[in-house]
Description:
The structure holds two protein chains of two kinds.
Chain A: E1 2-6, E2 16-23, E3 26-34, H1 41-44, H2 50-56, H3 65-79, H4 86-117, H5 126-151, E4 160-161, E5 164-165, H6 171-196, E6 209-213, E7 226-229, E8 234-236, H7 240-244, E9 264-265, H8 268-275, H9 281-290, H10 302-326, E10 340-348, E11 351-360, E12 363-370, H11 372-393, H12 398-411, H13 416-419
Parallel strand pairs in A: 6-9
Antiparallel strand pairs in A: 1-2, 2-3, 4-5, 6-7, 7-8, 10-11, 11-12
Helix pairs in contact in A: 2-3, 4-5, 4-10, 5-6, 6-10, 8-10, 9-10, 11-12
Chain B: E1 7-12, H1 18-24, H2 27-36, E2 38-42, E3 54-60, E4 63-65, H3 66-78, E5 79-85, H4 87-91, H5 104-112, E6 122-126, E7 136-138, H6 145-156, H7 168-174, H8 199-202, H9 219-228, H10 233-241, H11 246-261
Parallel strand pairs in B: 1-2, 1-3, 3-5, 5-7
Antiparallel strand pairs in B: 4-6
Amino acid sequence: xxxxxxxxxxxxxxxxxxxxxxxxxxxxxxxxxxxxxxxxxxxxxxxxxxxxxxxxxxxxxxxxxxxxxxxxxxxxxxxxxxxxxxxxxxxxxxxxxxxxxxxxxxxxxxxxxxxxxxxxxxxxxxxxxxxxxxxxxxxxxxxxxxxxxxxxxxxxxxxxxxxxxxxxxxxxxxxxxxxxxxxxxxxxxxxxxxxxxxxxxxxxxxxxxxxxxxxxxxxxxxxxxxxxxxxxxxxxxxxxxxxxxxxxxxxxxxxxxxxxxxxxxxxxxxxxxxxxxxxxxxxxxxxxxxxxxxxxxxxxxxxxxxxxxxxxxxxxxxxxxxxxxxxxxxxxxxxxxxxxxxxxxxxxxxxxxxxxxxxxxxxxxxxxxxxxxxxxxxxxxxxxxxxxxxxxxxxxxxxxxxxxxxxxxxxxxxxxxxxxxxxxxxxx
Amino acid sequence: xxxxxxxxxxxxxxxxxxxxxxxxxxxxxxxxxxxxxxxxxxxxxxxxxxxxxxxxxxxxxxxxxxxxxxxxxxxxxxxxxxxxxxxxxxxxxxxxxxxxxxxxxxxxxxxxxxxxxxxxxxxxxxxxxxxxxxxxxxxxxxxxxxxxxxxxxxxxxxxxxxxxxxxxxxxxxxxxxxxxxxxxxxxxxxxxxxxxxxxxxxxxxxxxxxxxxxxxxxxxxxxxxxxxxxxxxxxxxxxxxxxxxxxxxxxxxxxxxxxxxx
Lengths: 428, 262
């Protein structure tokens, strides 16, 4: 028996590693280890006011901070029986486009691409791919700018509140954003070109299931009240527990999810599988050009899915800014009840994120947060195991196998801070 | 990069990785920053990490497992200057909001049940200065780009950075915002360190205290003011503790004791 380890998985958010246990040539197990320490956030928000909760929970993760904020607001507003006016909805959709551009550009170009081009980091790519690194930084900066204008700050903006916003973006800021979105379209197209041209190794391929929200208005999008499963089922977000079935494993502080006893995938590739036909513009053309059987099996294609999705987000930004600008600023909606429960489901860049709340007499009684990376962990391990078996079977070196496994893990764009979260659980 | 470039390490422990992300968010300066220094270790950003002697270590996050504590001590031993970045490293962050109150074991059990987790031994999150000497604190949730860059550029030049020592109220006055406490709104400004530019009050929203406690804070005065405005004692304490961590734990305890005696 020997072990093949990746002690610290680099270029991901948070702290994780990979342990492969080998018996001769046979792979006994592959574990994604989570080194991140526990925080017990869901227990700590108990007894807080809903707005205090909405201030604290985005701190679960900096990269998907607005997804956490939005999921919390959706869950809390349902619990408090608040319906928000259209301007609130549109401004929230706009902020989510910004987060998508920021996160997808960071992941595809700066964290994942170095592997495919054979560099240890994006910084090391500067001399040979300087224009592309700068392009990535431009896109990322723009995504951050959209988040800053809508949410008040690049990371952990407090402008989105229960029932609305503190202040709405000005017409001037929106026009500027629109101009920049047009300007960056060629950059977003180049990212798709880069990832469309990569030969993705087939080692980790295997059939799996995909879950995503069913976005409103039959459009592509980043939130919804029901969940689409790629087997054709559609489930209410309120029944999220049936979809995620969390459990504890010994090798990490992150919980795991299974659906019908099987691992599944969430994230850009799942959104494309379930909602790709709803894309429009150049994103739709490129999706049609690239989408095929491989996407259903090979997690590495998530990189290309993120690239196409980022293009869609950039293409949709101008019309969203126009919509926000055309509507009057509404007043903040107040709660219509002080006791109730609600679940908010949104698409964080790395997949479906659930925030479930039970409010009692105006205070949080139960908080349950299920993050996309926690849902992906089982599938990450399945695909990594296959990848290790096949690569070792072909006589690849340990270093090659290590890199291959890192690429699989990284393709899911794991957010390990998020995954290390926790829920009130049924006793074992 | 020359041999004499300052050797930098960027590390993260329990938190949201937001402070490391803010370093990566310095898009316009990132290339220069990486060029002017030797980034020996920055696991979130790159693969070729070499641990060894460091001129400056930037450490994000709180400590909540035994493994993290070992790593923190190792970083301290290798670093000439150790800088805590972000509210979690400086004060423990939201995960340390009940520090000194007890009940951590029960909360842990409610989350993980009786499952045996062998990954590491967990403990209640604490700021890094609970375990090692910290040379400089750059607070924030997340840290501010400007404050970080100005401090980092001074540090790599071997000079001492200047950081705000006053509460965010000063920045709020600079922005000419009306004081929300006068309106009876719950604003944590007077207890909170400056550095964010009073972003929330400028959006018409009260300060939530995410930058952590300011120097010379007066918890009692804020408590009494908010009591006068009609707020519930329990809500006041919870809000003060939300991001206060180790910076308010003892002060809140004293306050509760005094209030109990009344």
